[in-house]
Amino acid sequence: MVNYDAALKLLLKGSARVAIHEVSGLTIARWMDGELPSVEQRHVDLLGESQDGRLLHIELQSANDPSMPLRMMEYGVKVARHHGRYPKQVVLYVGRARLRMASEFQANDEFLFRYRIVDIRDVDADLLLNSDGIGDNVLSVLTRLRNKRKAVRQIMSRIAELDEAGQSSVFEQLSMVAGLR
């Protein structure tokens, strides 16, 4: 199975500032280690800190998972224990199938847990495609592009402007991400 997480993490942590802001409303000043120490060694996909000190946890999901609300709650508690504050949480859904995951967990009348789920197809394609960040440009292929061929040509043109190492890396990321569609 292809590891989409690695390519998506590189794009999001690299130059996809517009995409991060669109799905979370935050601008990340620095990315943090997503490892959450415990006996079971759980880690979150992305954990960032905004300039005003708020934490952002983004979980990348390429398939519908009925256990997602419990996972997100568990991750949030572990982040809070480790970092002393509870993060804003977003599931960024990049799968092909229609998004069917719940964005909340209600145990009874007294307990309700919520987080945000964003289907990347609902992110403004033009905003990402016209961004100065190559990561945003690449992520645009997962949105509802009006003209896919034109968009890919535009992205390839941007990749061609990079140095050789950058071209190779971003083209590999584009290839992997395009596999989600």
Please outline the helices and strands.
Elements: H1 4-14, H2 17-24, E1 28-32, E2 35-36, E3 42-43, E4 46-50, E5 55-61, H3 68-83, E6 88-93, E7 104-108, E8 111-114, E9 116-119, H4 125-129, H5 134-139, H6 148-160, H7 164-178
Parallel strand pairs: 5-6, 6-9
Antiparallel strand pairs: 1-4, 2-3, 4-5, 7-8
Helix pairs in contact: 1-7
Integer-rounded radius of gyration: 17 Å
Overall pLDDT metric: 92
> Segments where pLDDT lies below 50 for 5+ residues?
none
- Biggest β-sheet: strands ordered side by side in the sheet: 1-4-5-6-9
- Considering DSSP H and I runs of 4 or more, what fraction of the residues is helical? 40-55%
Number of helices: 7
Q: Structural class of the secondary structure composition?
A: alpha/beta
Number of strands: 9
Count of individual domains: 1
From N to C, what is the helix and strand string? HHEEEEEHEEEEHHHH
Q: Identify the overall geometry.
A: globular
| Largest sheet geometry | 5 strands, mixed
Strand content: 15-25%
First and last CA, distance: 15 Å
Explain this structure to me?
This protein is α/β, with parallel strands linked by helices and 181 residues long. The protein has one domain. The chain is built from seven helices and nine strands, in the order H-H-E-E-E-E-E-H-E-E-E-E-H-H-H-H. A five-stranded mixed β-sheet has the order 1-4-5-6-9. A two-stranded antiparallel sheet has the order 2-3. A hairpin with a 2-residue loop joins strand 7 and strand 8. Helix 1 packs across helix 7. The longest helix is centred in the middle third of the chain and has 16 residues.
